[in-house]
Each structure stands twice: as structure tokens, then as C-alpha cells.
């Protein structure tokens, strides 16, 4: 049996049907996605990603709260969807954990029965 390295959390084995959902993106990243589609139209000669990031960051900082509101609302909507998917994922993992524990218990009972019979066979020789 391998020893676990100190300080590492236990890693659970997940069932194949349990795919962990990805975290939702922030309001700024939602804005940046939209802005990156408009930027080449406004600046056809600039093809640099650095220029795109600088321009989007500057634009975001200059925007008022009212202008940011649609992006923040979209972020909140995505957070709620993420929470629903995480709850479903946690239920799936819990079911997989209980099934794994049950199979581990049945294997250990079988191993104990088998182990006691093997000892008796060694004494007969």
C-alpha cells in the first residue's frame, strides 16, 4: 500500500458520468468577448492581441455602472446555472462514492474469507 504525501488532499475517483462543470466567467470576460468581435472592425490595421487587451481594459475602466449592468446580469445568470450544475455534480459524486464504498466492503469480506482458507491450506502441507 502506497503512503500518501503529507499535505495533499485525498483525491476521489469519480464516476465516468460525473463531469465537473467549469466555473463561470466574470463580467469583464463577457464584455471582452463581445469587444473582441467589434475591435477589428473599428481598428482594421491593428492585429495585436496586446492592443486588444489594452483597449478592452481601458474601455471597461471608463464604462459607468449602468453600462456594465448587462454584463454583470449575464455573469449572475451564469453563476446560477453553474450552481445548479454543481449541485447535480455533487449528487452524482455522492452516489458514486457510496457505490464504491459498498463494492469495497464486499471485496474486503471476500478477501477475509479467502484469506482464512488459504492459511488452513498451508497448515496441511
From TrEMBL:
GO CC annotations, alphabetized: chromatin; nucleus
GO biological process, alphabetically ordered: chromatin organization
MF terms (GO), sorted A to Z: chromatin binding; DNA binding; structural constituent of chromatin
Domain of life: Eukaryota
DNA-binding region, residues: 21-90
InterPro entries in the cross-refs: HMG_box_dom, HMG_box_dom_sf, HMGB_plant
Main location: nucleus
SMART domains membership: HMG (SM00398)
Name of the featured protein: HMG box domain-containing protein
Amino acid at each position: 500500500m502506497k503512503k500518501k504525501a503529507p499535505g495533499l488532499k485525498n483525491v476521489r475517483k469519480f464516476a465516468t458520468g460525473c463531469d465537473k462543470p467549469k466555473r463561470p466567467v466574470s463580467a469583464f470576460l463577457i464584455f471582452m468577448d463581445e469587444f473582441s468581435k467589434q475591435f477589428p472592425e473599428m481598428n482594421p490595421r491593428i492585429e495585436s492581441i496586446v492592443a486588444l487587451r489594452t483597449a478592452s481594459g481601458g474601455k471597461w475602466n471608463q464604462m459607468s455602472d449602468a453600462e456594465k449592468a448587462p454584463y454583470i446580469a449575464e455573469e449572475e445568470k451564469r453563476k446560477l446555472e453553474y450552481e445548479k450544475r454543481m449541485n447535480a455534480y455533487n449528487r452524482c459524486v455522492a452516489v458514486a462514492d457510496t457505490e464504491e464504498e459498498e463494492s469495497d466492503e464486499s471485496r474486503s469480506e471476500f478477501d477475509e474469507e479467502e484469506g482464512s482458507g488459504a492459511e488452513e491450506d498451508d497448515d496441511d502441507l
